[in-house]
Amino acid sequence: MFIRLPSVQRLSFTTLSVLHTLAGQGPKRLTDLAAGEQVTQPAITQMVAKLEREGLVERRPDPSDRRAVLVRVTEAGAAIVHGRRADRRAHLTDLTAALTPAERASIAAALPALARLAEVNRHLAEQHRRN
Q1: Contact 72, 57 (CB under 8 A)
Q2: Could you name the CATH architecture of 1-98?
Q3: Positive or negative, the Cα torsion across 1, 88, 20, 127?
Q4: Measured on CA atoms in the order 114, 115, 119, 122, is the torsion positive or negative?
Q5: Letter string b/e over residues 33-49, b meaning 16 or more CB atoms within 10 A of that residue's CB
Q6: What is the DSSP pairing of strand 57-62 with strand 28-29?
Q7: Are 59 and 71 in contact (CB under 8 A)?
Q8: Range 117-121, long-range pairs (CB < 8 A, 24+ positions)
Q9: What pLDDT, on a 0 to 100 scale, did the predictor assign at position 88?
Q10: Mind giving me the DSSP string for 61-90?
Q11: Helix (H) or strand (E) run with residue 22 in it
């Protein structure tokens, strides 16, 4: 449901995922982005070059290794991420307005378990990245 929300700019799912990753997790090396997005190094390099031309990301030297670069989201890229989040919230607000009070209460009661599920997923993803 969220993936298919209309957007002003037509960006691919992977492109949006890269922007969301950089906005949420901070600057990343190209190799880390490729691994996280499950694409090849040439594919992520090409995507980052396109995003850079569009002013949505920028490359900077990695302070821990001057031979490497870090990709970071720009203000324009972050604005796309924030705009999509606002669209999602508005869409969910419209959807939940159509539910009965009992249905909304059921969703509210499930929120702690869903938050825990997201926490477990983050933990497992971190473990996977370390291995």
Answers
A1: yes
A2: Orthogonal Bundle (1.10)
A3: negative
A4: positive
A5: bbebbebeeeebeebbe
A6: unpaired
A7: yes
A8: none
A9: 85
A10: EETTEEEEEEEEE-HHHHHHHHHHHHHHHH
A11: helix 13-25
Positions of the chain with pLDDT lower than 70, given as ranges: 1-9
Q: How far apart are CA 106 and CA 100, in angstroms?
A: 10
Task: Report helix angle 13-25 to 30-37, nearest 10.
Answer: 120
Q: Which two tokens stand for residue 29?
A: 């090396």
Q: What is the pLDDT of residue 13?
A: 83
Distances (CA, A) of 122 to 43, 73, 119, 125, 126: 25, 21, 5, 5, 6
16 burial via Cβ count (<10 Å: 0-12, 13-18, 19+): middle
Stated pTM of the model: 0.75
State which H helix or E strand residue 119 sits in.
helix 101-130
Task: List Cα–Cα distances, 91 to 49, 68, 83, 98, 99, in angstroms.
Answer: 32, 40, 12, 11, 13
| Burial status of residue 131 (CB atoms within 10 A of its CB: 0-12, 13-18, 19 or more) | exposed
Report phi then psi at 56, rounded to 5: -95, -20
